[in-house]
Amino acid sequence: MADEPISDDERIIQNLIAYCEDVPLKILRATSTKQLSQRLDVEGFVLGEYSNDWYGLAERTGYMTKEMRKFEQHESPTTALLNDWSTRLKMSPTVDTLLKYLVEIQRPDIVLDSEKSIRRDVEHSKQPARAPLPPKPKVPESDRYDAFVVYGNTERDIQFMKDMVNILEGEDHNIRLYVPGRDDLAGDEKYVVTAEMIANRCRRVIVVLSRGFEDSEDCDFALKLAQSLSPGAKTKRIIPILLDNVKIPLILNFVGTVNFTNPMQREWVWPRVAATIKCPLVPSIQDWQCTIDDLKNMKYDSKHVQHLLYGIGVACQEFPPEEEEEEKKGKKGEKKKKT
């Protein structure tokens, strides 16, 4: 007798199994796994030797009852089964094996419904790996800046920025500042330039907090970008300068500000700002930690030690509240009168 002709569905399944031969199961992406799980997680019934759900697939794969109970505790037993199966090299964790087992447990419908998604995953896995991107060229020192200045667009902000440039870039401090509007790179989109300068060419970011800052979208973008590059202020990259008594942004609550609200005291504060800009982002522990030799060579005279111990004693002493002191004095006074 001549072989019976196969149906179109059977031909699609056979072609898919052949296409997926020896392809690792781990290449299946979330979409395919979700499609399989939605159908196999539903409790089925026994057709032949196995049930037509995830439990039957696990039995056909070779899992023991104890292991299948662990899969049952997950939100999606099928997903847990596929993830575990992909690590069991002795169980032939390949896509074509999965498809064959689905046919054996009487679920060709799942193979047909997932055919496009599985084929896309296999095609993606067979594509040659992309060549790694070449390393970014190092920015020459001539293109680097000590600090990026974030300031508002009001006349007062601009005047303060000019004063800052004259003082910090002067001979006393010799700091190189990147000032938007003065040093912008030509030809690029504004926010692209800001991101490039803050991320790769400027060591620190000076943020001038003022009323003009609150109304500026450019300032808001630059501040959030700088904070994202130094979460938790680990590298102390941002230097907030308080020009007006405004509300400090929440992302700067853990960063100490430099107070410039009093014009009479500004000339005292500029050296602190310059020193902060110049100090390393992540100081080496060797720069500040004492060595054993340093401790051995450290000499104190008797008066110094006496004052030191006295200060420690005062700092550690617990003083009673003033009300208790007054009560004690009153009681002592009464005792003296009686005597």
From TrEMBL:
TIR domain boundaries: 143-277
Record's subcellular location: Cytoplasm
Compositional bias annotation for Basic residues: 330-339
Region Disordered: start-end pairs: 320-339
PROSITE patterns per the UniProt record, alphabetical: DEATH_DOMAIN (PS50017), TIR (PS50104)
GO cellular component: cytoplasm
Entry's Gene Ontology BP terms: innate immune response; MyD88-dependent toll-like receptor signaling pathway; positive regulation of canonical NF-kappaB signal transduction
Signal peptide: none
KW Cytoplasm (keyword) present: yes
GO molecular function, one term: TIR domain binding
Cross-referenced SMART domains: TIR
Keyword Cytoplasm appears in the UniProt entry: yes
Listed InterPro entries: DEATH-like_dom_sf, Death_dom, MyD88_Death, Myelin_different_resp_MyD88, TIR_dom, Toll_tir_struct_dom_sf
Source taxon at top rank: Eukaryota
Record's protein name: Myeloid differentiation factor 88a
Species annotation: Mytilus coruscus (Sea mussel)
